[in-house]
Amino acid sequence: MTEKREALPDETRREAGHALLNRVLRGAARRYRLPGIEAARLRDPDIRPATALAIVIELARRATDSGAAPAPALKDRFIEALAGMIREAMREGNGDPVFQAAVLRHRFPHVREYASLAAHASRDRRRIEAAVNALAHPAKRQRLAQGPWREALARLHAAASSASWGELRDAARRLSALPEAAGRRRAERLTPHHPSHMPLAARWPR
């Protein structure tokens, strides 16, 4: 007869699985483990900040693996090495441009606003083009009589198609000033004074 095994509770199975995983990871060969690292290397005045940071992390890991707390001096050395890496990244000419851009974005609100607008530029342009086409698409204009309203719609559509945001703002304002009541109500949804379009129309770089 086949012996029936009692099913283990879920929590017990998870604990057993974690213990097995820990044993496997601790016993596995680490291809990228730094060999022969000694704390004395941190006293080298010519050591690169990135190298010092890697040594500190490895020494802290060894202390943790042995069940001890990392030495307080490692914390100070970690902060010093990290500060050195930041200084290298911020160095003009041969620093890290991506990191420098992130710092500028964090420090200056107008840089952060511009970056946010640039990140959503394609989406915002599609939304504006859809709104303009709903009102001023060439097929719609062909059904209108010649006159100021039709000409204003043509200017509005041309400005949106060429991504001329300043001209689009002016065209929307002229359109909203025309006497046609229906046109005025529709144009108000496109004018840059509307909250949904003010940041794009008012601050988009030309």
What does this structure look like?
The protein has eleven helices and no strands. The protein folds into two domains: 34-107; 120-203, no CATH class. With 206 residues, it is an all-alpha fold. The model is unreliable at 193-206 (pLDDT under 50). It has helices at 10-27, 49-65, 72-89, 97-107, 109-119, 121-136, 138-141, 148-161, 165-176, 181-188, 198-203.
Give me the secondary-structure topology.
Layout lengths: L9 H18 L21 H17 L6 H18 L7 H11 L1 H11 L1 H16 L1 H4 L6 H14 L3 H12 L4 H8 L9 H6 L3
Treating each run of at least 4 consecutive H or I residues as one helix, how many helices? Answer: 11
What does the main sheet amount to? none
Could you say how many structural domains there are in total? 2
Distance between the termini: 84 Å
What ranges have pLDDT less than 50 throughout 5 or more consecutive residues? 193-206
What descriptors fit this protein?
single chain, 206 residues, mainly alpha, 2 domains, 11 helices, 66% helix, elongated, disordered C terminus
